Amino acid sequence: MKGNVEQRGKISWRLTAYLGYDPNTGAQKRERKTVKAENKRQAEKLLREWIGEIEKGVKPRGNNMTVRQFADEWLEKHCEANLQPKTVHTYREKLDGHILPVLGHVKLCELVPKMIVDFCNDLRQANRRKDCREVPEKKLSDRTILHCYRILSSMLQVAVYWQVLSGNPAKKVKPPKVERKKALLYDEAVVEQICRAIKQEPPQYQAMVVLEVYTGMRIGELLGMTWKHVNFEECSLDVRKAAQYIPGKGTFIKNTPKNSSSERTIEIDRKIIELLKRHQQEQAKSKVELADCWEENDLVFTKWNGKPFLPNVLSNWFPAFMLRHNLPRLRFHDLRHYHVSFLVHMGIPIHDIQRRTGHAKASTLLDVYGHARKSSNDMITRTLTAAIAPHLQ
């Protein structure tokens, strides 16, 4: 296959590959591509590489397609068909808010690694948060920047699979660094104070907080739990659903939790079962009083009329509860951290903790909660010292 190069600007070159002749019209078929190159020799090298890709059957099909145009197609044909609605919403949010305003106009085939490096650096600048325009020093978190990079890389990889691109330029960029924060360690005194204070709250909130301390469930799992998944006889809960919220769609109950490993059965204490029974009795009274105004969803935890809670209800209520009782500032999600760090501290095998808490990877537990194992390491050191040290004297 033949081709040629033609200089179009100071460092801009147009590559032309000749693909033979149309059998019907006899006209010569050709494909063109614009690249950046310092000189003719470099441009000719890029031409040879491109022709090689065409001959291997990986000829890019979207030379004029922009990043924004492909993003729309990717969301519709790939994401909506394969991913959860909440994930699709998050991808749209990050694309519209951060990625497309910077890269949307770029032709997909002209996107190079340096553009992605510059994009990530741009996200680190102050005032890149859509919700903090009047606070110049406020920046996006490293985790948000990494998320934007991963979304872009994932989208470009699909472009490779669909043979719209011959390679993923994001693969040649080092992912943005994120310093993994250590989770809170279990604080027995704080948990005791919470358990005392919660007795002054309505039965529903008592049950939610105590269940969180005892099971470490995710907020969505807690608010998506139904009565049919509470086994009063065997003192266990089946985690099979999760509550989610999407702007414009509202709160809905997913028939699956976060991932396949999140489906699990958790054993609980008989006292917690009794607490759930008291809450169930209060809920039954509300059903009778509200009659037709009650919306039956079989949910354990609901609004006053039986409708699902917004997932942020506990995120807003819990800090206010802690403040009312002069307790340390904590998020409701921190109770999950307390639960896991307690199990790690007690020496429960990591894979057993993983099954109980629904983490997808045991390695995540080790990364986030490894510091909680210090006491176990100290015990190992003391044991080995007692066994070996006498022989070293």
What descriptive keywords fit this protein?
single chain, 393 residues, mainly alpha, DNA polymerase, domain 1, hpI Integrase, Chain A, 3 domains, 3-stranded antiparallel beta sheet, 14 helices, 8 strands, 11% strand
CATH topology of the largest domain: hpI Integrase, Chain A
Helix and strand succession? Answer: EEEHHHHHHHHEEEEEHHHHHH
Low-pLDDT windows of residues: 131-135
- Rounded to the nearest angstrom, the distance between the terminal CA atoms is 79 Å
Radius of gyration: 28 Å
The CATH class name of the largest domain reads Mainly Alpha
Shape field: elongated
Number of helices: 14
Count of extended strands: 8
Oligomer: single chain
The residue-averaged pLDDT reads 85
Quote the beta fraction: 5-15%
Strand arrangement within the widest β-sheet reads 1-2-3
Profile the largest sheet.
3 strands, antiparallel
By CATH, the superfamily of the largest domain comes out as: Intergrase catalytic core
The number of distinct structural domains comes to: 3
Q: By helix and strand content, what is the structural category?
A: mainly alpha
**Helix content class:** 40-55%
- Report the CATH architecture of the largest domain: Orthogonal Bundle
Write the layout of secondary structure elements.
Blueprint: E1 3-7, E2 12-21, E3 28-36, H1 40-55, H2 67-82, H3 85-103, H4 113-123, H5 142-161, H6 188-197, H7 203-215, H8 219-224, E4 230-231, E5 236-239, E6 242-246, E7 250-254, E8 264-267, H9 270-290, H10 313-324, H11 334-345, H12 350-357, H13 362-369, H14 374-392
Antiparallel strand pairs: 1-2, 2-3, 4-5, 5-8, 6-7
Helix pairs in contact: 2-3, 3-5, 7-9, 7-11
